[in-house]
Write a structure and sequence with these properties.
The structure holds two protein chains of two kinds. Helix content of chain A is 53%, strand content 11%. By secondary structure, chain A is an alpha+beta fold. By secondary structure, chain B is of the alpha+beta class. Chain B has nine helices and 23 strands. The interface between A and B is medium-sized, with 22 and 20 residues.
């Protein structure tokens, strides 16, 4: 560190730092720091007259200690004091400390702001700069609030120094980024635009950054900047002679400013004004021309700067997408870069070309480089560049070169990096589908794809093949043949087997005529691979076998033998076992007609969005690529139309694109409930869940319930039932709630309903928790409580509204307020309605609101009890029942249940200690009903006798009913 | 089992690296350095698990010893081994320091080969090791030349090391049979400001230095409660009258040197052994009941406004007036925003040590049943941090010439049947030293 002057050296600081650096261990360092901190504390505390120099020195030390990772909790005040110093070095250290250490510290921020305000008003450029830098560095909301209005005026004031303007522009940019709502737009905006005309290039550079950000937010306000930017750009680019001050960088004129101006122009469409437009075009041409000139320097900085401008210019050309000549020139320029020595340049060229390929003007031009790109794919050493090459090939592909490109990608796939294989597979699958001229080629390609990179072929890809084959009648025979041939290979990938199993199961009859692929041969071929596959594939193959039984009655015994074998019927996997049993029974019981109906060919799949495309987008992540892709779809749609007016569009068969591209469907996802609701055995049943392998076995079983009623499969719960309309009220868990207040009242595959309730006198509150057990949203969710007419007069239930959507895996809470008006015996019903996966679900649950919930326990002595017991001696007031115990007779459990029922358990009242005696009062709004109960267990006979005496007959009966079910 | 052993200096440079098993890769060395030695936060746990590899480390001054393993080993065993390793190194070349380790690295590798075999700890008894690793450590100063061994002695090594008594060789002869016995205790205390004992325990060691001829059989007796009860019940001891008057102590747990016959201890509660030659630790023990606390610290802290703190600390010595405590040091922590301290003390010297954030009060000697006090005024700097000072406890260091646990050596008898010297001929020395461990009083 060169000693600037005697006062600036800060020897103490240097000594301290070197001490710290020389510390042998962490402990020693901590000791040294503690010592220094104590010293600074005593200095700050001691004599008030600490001169500026030593204050600066100590603040510096504190800053250093803080940067070493120790906490500093004092010295802020001294740093703030430094702000008001007149010496630059002291002020600088003060600002430095504040920028680093102050975090919206409440009591100091006003002092700091005051200091900054003074400096901003000081007209001293260095001080103003320091203040602006501090604001930009801290960039907190408080600062934005305090200065957002002041800085624009500094920026546009006429008498502000250039360097201050520069800082002000950047400071404003920073505030605009952190708290955009606080930066007011006003009359200064127009004047900011004129900064583009400023003499000082630094100001222009800073202003351009600011304007670009602002223009992105409100393009209309800054439209005037276009002409100024173009003018400025042309002055820099075209006229070599003007004075660029110090802004020439390795013979490139103001590269940063050029890049920023070009960026700014990318915020707007091409200028309307012809003169302006031609001037811009001239600029861009000049930039392109300059790229052709021999380099003025061998230094890498020169070419870097030059290329930076060039790439930004190309980006602008692509953005405008209006000048065919420029586009083609840009494309040619990039073509040169494709073979450049610099890896970075090759990467950038490929990346820019990807966007160029989407322009209708340059698409053809891009296509001329196909060989270079393919070559790059093969020879490039850098994997990221290869990846770009794949992207470019994907982007430049159209009907004319699709075969070549797909073939090249396939051949590259064999030795591609594992990281990008899956993406290439998806791309190949999409291209093959999109540009398929005939289906045979498509089927060949995909089968090839599975052969080469089977592990990377995701489910979506082979679902897609099957969808296309099923939807296109003319390709089915060929597909069956090809698949059959492909399966002949001794080792084939499981995905191929899946496709093979499915297609042969559906269309095996189309090739059965040939003795080489007779039904038995087909079956044996599939079955020879059966044992090597995973469970889902085996399940699929089993379904294929049952289809075979339908297609070829002659192989039925063979297949039945297979299904009957122990390895199927007693398979450890439930799914396989169940399929084997069900298919076997189906084949034995059902007549050929039923078989034919049940195992009919799959209906065509409905059109949906392409799952492959969705997957590719997801893989790329949400960023520029999906946009680009979408842009491409549109653009390509246009090109297709423009060039295909003559042959393809209407008549010719291979307009695969027309019927596949816009929609592209994922696997046919159908839910068992819908099938159930259909009532009959939908012909598609085994295969719908074939492609939906992860649906639970229970659901699978329910499909066959009607036909194979002798099978012991679990009946579906009534509430999974379909569609709107009256549904059964679920009271499965109802009785559990008689003696407790919390728990799960309802549960099925989709929804769980839990309750938490509390009661006080005649009021109650129930918290209902709806848990979405699936991973997708419930839409238009609603719930209400209905009561019978009589109940309405006895019980008030008030429900709070709930959100209409429940996210997957989320829980929703609803509050029910309950008021008991008089005694009641009915129960309210909770109705829940929501839409899941397109079907409306309706669930009704009995709400466990019973009379006993409004009990208040009453303690009383033995005397009192029997006195009251006698008072309630009228026969109508007593209800007695004798019943058999349903649960083991455990005293503790019974105790708990009686307490849970709501009454006080009175011990020592009954002469027989084994008996249970309880008393309580039921609170309703109108009356209070006292209640005495006595439960006499008989362990030998496993019987109970329950006696209840209350002042009201109906209450006695209801309570007796409720309680007697509990033991 | 231990997969490898590394020794680092304070900068994290590897001084010794010995890998015993293949599952420990080269990167393990760096993993420990990066994650423990150079960690941002100080690593306090002695066991660190990095990428399914466990690192057990101990630190001796500036030197880190780390044992590495991928297996689920007994951590106590590994640490016992590391401590043993430190003892062995100290016995060979003195203090464990970077310089000494660098000077003796050949010796250390030889030792490591001997005391760990494929990660399994072997005989790590210094006495035994010295019989066959005869290299002399380089201690900085010149020391006596290695004892040249006769061929006969060398041939005995194998039988001794593999034999039943691996810690002592035969044929040792001394002109004067001498025995030194030190009872070293460290007393740990945590006391509330009101003088209530929150936790207290004594961990003690019995260290012996024996210079005895032949293969003597020793018997050690102390005033352990169980032993005395047992003997009292049996009524067979020769001096029942004497022991009944004495206090007995309750030992919570103890561990013995491998030479002690554990079977005999289990059955008769008697500690009998054939001692190794030279210095060794006979037993370690811990007591928690009836501890004599040598000092009582009475703190008085008063906060006067936001910028001032008054501290008064009184210490009282609580033992026989005839005894003298030494090296007394009281450490009074000061708040982190201390800007100045004034100290007044009657006795000894007190000083504010800014680097340690504490007032350190030192007294050279203090007799029993005395009292002394210090008062300090601490000036504070107001900070913008709202955090309150946590008031760390006042800690104390001292050394007293008695055993705070109350342990007494009752007898130490030596029997040597083959050579003609008897118990009376052995000169025995016993010494008690009580030191402070973590001796803290909250304020």
């Amino acid at each position: 560190m060169p000693a600037v002057s005697k006062g600036d050296g800060m020897r103490g600081l240097a000594v301290f730092i070197s001490d710290i650096r020389n510390c042998k261990s962490k402990e020693a360092e901590v000791k040294r720091i503690n010592k220094e901190l104590a010293n600074i504390r005593s200095k700050f505390k001691g004599d008030k007259a600490l001169d500026g120099y030593s204050k600066k020195k100590y603040v510096c030390k504190l800053l250093f200690i803080f940067l070493l990772g120790h906490d500093i909790d004092f010295g802020h005040m001294e740093a703030v004091n430094l702000l008001s110093s007149n010496k630059y070095t002291e002020k600088q250290i003060g600002y430095l400390f504040i920028s680093v250490l102050v975090n919206s510290n409440s009591d100091l921020i006003s002092l700091i702001n005051n200091g900054i305000k003074n400096d901003l008003a000081s007209r001293n450029p260095t001080f103003m700069n320091l203040a602006l830098h501090c604001i930009a560095n801290v960039g907190s909301r408080e600062m934005a609030e305090a200065f957002a209005s002041q800085i624009p005026s500094i920026l546009v004031a006429g008498d502000t120094m250039d360097s201050v303007k520069q800082s002000a522009a950047l400071c404003l940019l920073r505030l605009n980024r952190t708290s955009p709502d606080l930066v007011p737009m006003g009359e200064w905006t127009a004047r900011v635009v004129h900064l583009l005309n400023d003499q000082h290039l630094g100001v222009v550079t800073a202003a351009t950054s600011l304007i670009t950000t602002l223009a992105q937010k409100s393009p209309e306000d800054f439209r005037t900047s276009i002409s100024l930017a173009v003018a400025r750009l042309s002055r820099i680019v075209t006229s070599a002679s003007i004075d660029l001050q110090d802004y020439t960088y390795y013979f490139v004129a103001a590269p940063w400013l050029s890049v920023k101006l070009l960026r700014l122009l990318q915020c707007y469409p091409p200028p309307e004004d012809a003169a302006l437009r031609s001037r811009l075009t001239e600029c861009l041409e000049t930039i392109l021309n300059k790229a052709q000139e021999p380099p003025k320097s061998k230094k890498v900085q020169h070419s870097n700067a030059k290329n930076a401008v060039l790439f930004e210019a190309i980006a602008l050309i692509i953005h405008h997408d209006s000048e065919p000549t420029l586009l083609v020139r840009a494309c040619n320029q990039l073509g040169q870069f494709l073979q450049h020595r610099e890896t970075n340049l090759r990467y950038l060229a490929l990346e820019s070309m990807c966007t160029l390929a989407s322009s209708e003007f340059s698409h053809e031009a891009v296509k001329t480089h196909i060989d270079t790109v393919i070559n790059a794919l093969k020879t490039e050493r850098d994997v990221s560049v290869r990846q770009r090459a794949v992207d470019l090939l994907y982007a430049m592909c159209d009907r004319s070169n699709s075969k070549q490109i797909v073939a090249e990608m396939l051949s590259y796939l064999e030795n591609a990096d594992y990281s990008i294989r899956e993406e290439i597979v998806l791309k190949v699958a999409i291209l093959a589908e999109k540009y398929a001229v005939d289906y045979t080629w498509y089927v060949d390609t995909i089968l090839n794809l599975i052969r080469i990179a089977g592990d990377h072929v995701s489910e979506e890809v082979w679902y897609r093949v099957i969808q296309i084959v099923i939807n296109q009648d003319d390709v089915q025979g060929y597909a069956a043949k090809t698949v059959f041939e492909a399966l002949q290979a001794p080792a084939c990938h499981e995905n191929l087997l899946k496709v093979g199993g499915y297609i042969l199961g559906e269309f095996g009859n189309l090739i059965a005529g040939d003795p080489r692929s007779s039904p038995l041969v087909q079956f044996n071929l599939l079955h020879s691979k059966f044992h090597l596959c995973s469970v889902p594939t085996r399940a699929l193959l089993l379904s294929a076998y049952i289809k075979f039984i339908n297609l070829f009655p002659e192989v039925k015994p063979t297949i039945q033998d297979v299904l009957r074998s122990d390895s199927q019927l007693r398979n450890a996997d439930v799914e396989l076992q169940q399929r084997a049993i069900e298919y076997l029974r189906l084949s034995c019981i059902a007549s050929t007609d039923i078989l034919a109906t049940v195992l009919e060919e799959m209906p065509p799949f409905p059109e949906r969005e392409s799952s492959i495309l969705a997957k590719l987008k997801k893989k790329k992540g949400p960023g520029k690529v999906p946009d680009m892709d979408e842009a491409r779809w549109n653009v390509n749609g246009n090109t297709e139309h423009s060039e295909n007016t003559e042959p393809t569009n209407k008549s010719s068969p291979p307009s695969l694109v027309a019927d596949l591209l816009p929609t592209n469907r994922p696997r046919p996802a159908s839910y068992s409930p819908t099938i159930l609701s259909a009532g009959n055995m939908a012909p598609s049943h085994p295969f719908t869940d074939l492609l939906n392998m992860n649906s639970s076995p229970a659901a699978g079983a329910s499909l066959l319930v009607d036909v194979l009623s002798d099978l012991s499969s679990p009946a579906p719960t009534p509430t999974t039932g379909p569609g709107p309309g009256p549904t059964d009220v679920c009271e499965e868990h109802f009785s559990r709630f008689v003696c407790k207040n919390n728990g799960v009242i309802f549960e099925n595959q989709l929804l769980q309903i839990g309750l938490k309730s509390e009661y006080r006198q005649n009021l109650g509150r129930i918290y209902v928790f709806y848990g979405n057990k699936t991973s997708s949203q419930f839409l238009s969710f609603s719930s209400s409580v209905t009561s019978s007419d009589t109940l309405k007069t006895q019980l008030n239930v008030h429900t709070m509204p709930v959100d209409p959507t429940v996210e997957g895996g989320a829980q929703l809470q609803q509050i029910l307020n309950i008021e008991c008006l008089s005694d009641f015996s009915d129960t309210p019903v909770l109705n829940v309605q929501f839409r899941y996966g397109g079907t409306l679900q309706n669930i009704a649950v009995k709400l466990p609101v019973m009379l006993n919930k409004f009990f208040q326990p009453t303690e009383m002595t033995s005397e009192d009890f029997f006195q009251r017991w006698k008072q309630l001696g009228v026969p109508q007031q007593e209800v007695q029942t004798i019943f058999k115990a349903q649960h083991p007779m455990d005293t503790d459990v019974t105790n708990a249940k009686i307490l849970g029922f709501g009454v006080a358990l009175l011990s020592g009242v009954d002469p027989n200690p084994a008996n249970f005696v309880g008393a309580g009062v039921i609170h309703t709004k109108n009356t209070q009903v006292g209640c005495l109960l006595r439960l006499e267990p008989n362990p030998q006979a496993e019987m109970y006798r329950l006696t209840l005496r209350t002042s009201r007959e109906s209450v006695s009966q209801r309570l007796c009913d409720l309680l007697s079910e509990q033991f | 089992m231990i997969g490898g052993l590394f020794i680092y200096n304070h900068k994290g440079e590897v001084l010794i690296s010995r890998v015993y098993r293949d599952d420990i890769g080269r990167n393990a060395v760096d993993a420990f350095r990066v994650n423990v030695i150079h960690a941002r936060q100080q690593v306090r746990s002695p066991v660190t698990n990095i990428a399914r590899t466990s690192f057990f480390h101990v630190k001796r001054s500036n030197i880190w010893l780390a044992a590495v393993t991928k297996q689920n080993v007994n951590a106590a065993m590994v640490f016992e081994f590391l401590y043993k390793m430190c003892d062995v190194m100290t016995a060979y070349f003195g203090k464990i320091s970077e310089e000494n380790i660098k000077n003796n690295f050949v010796l250390i590798y030889e030792l490591l080969d001997e005391i760990l075999d494929f990660g399994y700890p072997q005989n790590s008894e210094t006495g035994a090791l010295k019989t066959f690793i005869t290299q002399q450590g380089i201690k900085g100063q010149v020391i006596s030349l290695p004892v040249s061994q006769t061929k006969e002695e060398q041939s005995q090594i194998t039988s001794q090391v593999t034999g039943q008594i691996g810690w002592r060789r035969e044929g040792i002869k001394y002109r004067r049979n001498e025995l030194f016995l030190d009872v070293l205790e460290s007393v740990n205390l945590l006391m509330s400001p009101q003088g209530q004992v929150l936790s207290a325990h004594v961990s003690g060691r019995v260290v012996m230095k024996s210079y005895l001829s032949g293969m003597p059989e020793c018997k050690f007796g102390m005033n352990d409660k169980i032993v005395i009860d047992k003997q009292g019940k049996g009524g067979t001891t020769e001096d029942t009258g004497k022991s009944s008057g004495k206090q007995s102590i309750a030992i919570d747990d103890c561990t013995f040197h491998q030479c002690v016959r554990l079977s005999k201890f289990d059955s008769e509660r008697s500690i009998s052994f054939i001692p190794p030659d030279g210095e060794y630790e006979l037993m370690r023990y811990r007591t928690t009941k009836d501890i004599i606390l040598p000092f009582r610290v009475i703190p008085l802290v008063r906060e006067v406004g936001r910028t001032k703190l008054e501290v008064k600390v009184v210490i009282k010595s609580n033992f026989k007036p005839s005894l003298l405590a030494q090296k007394i040091e009281v450490r009074i922590p000061t708040p982190l925003n201390t800007s100045g301290v004034q100290v007044i003390c009657m006795k000894g010297k007190a000083k504010y040590k800014a680097s340690e954030n504490a007032i350190v009060w030192k007294i050279k000697r203090m007799a029993g049943m005395k009292e002394s006090q210090i008062s300090a005024e601490i000036e504070l700097l107001p900070t913008n941090d709202k955090k309150k000072w946590a008031r760390p406890p006042i800690s104390m260091n001292f050394e007293v010439p008695f055993a705070p646990s109350g342990l007494k050596v009752r007898y130490l008898k030596v029997f040597e049947s083959k050579l003609n010297y008897s118990d009376h001929d052995v000169i025995k020395w016993v010494r008690y030293i009580g030191r402070s461990g973590i001796y803290e009083t909250r304020c």
